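Course assignment 3, question 2. Fill in each field.
Student: A.L.
Task: Predict the tertiary structure for the chain below.
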Amino acid sequence: MAGGEVPSPPVAHRDYVDPMRRFFETCLSRVTELNLTAFHFAINVDGCDLVASTLSKLRALALAPCGVNRANSLESLAGGCALLEHLDVRSSRAGGDPIVTCEACQLALHFTGLSFGLLQRKTRLRRLSIDETARTSNLTFLVACRVQELRLSLDNLCDEGAGAVPDRTRPASFGQSSVVFPHSDGPQGDAV
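Answer field:
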């Protein structure tokens, strides 16, 4: 490999889904926390569907952006992971190594107010993290977001995404690399 060249990550294609589903059902069915950020999914594979159909006890899930960027990804999680409290969307990086992403990670997330609202109603979701490796083109899902802690990187916000930020969730400065929106049940104006 030439110096500075970033390696391609392993990618699960459609042929891997059934063996992975059997592995998850057999070996991981009682797992409550799962980090698949170093694992990538092909464009035609829904990582959320795979996880939700086999791991109903999950409380914390971390996936690379390619695992959650299908139109029905959040609906799959809502239907299969009722105990889910933490969702983390990011690609893995080891130490100072460059972030490794795949072709499907380059697609924008399909989070909508409707799909995110469903996820909120059917799960125990309290924390959502979306880091700089996830492309975000539309932030209107934030209107339905009622998590206690939201960590959102604006580094990979698509140009059209900045205009799709609901006014009441728009950060004071888009010059920031990431924004943390803790939810407070206390009086308005509490220091954050």
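Instructor remarks: Residues 166-178, 186-192 have pLDDT under 50 and may be disordered. The longest helix spans residues 17-27.
Grade: pending
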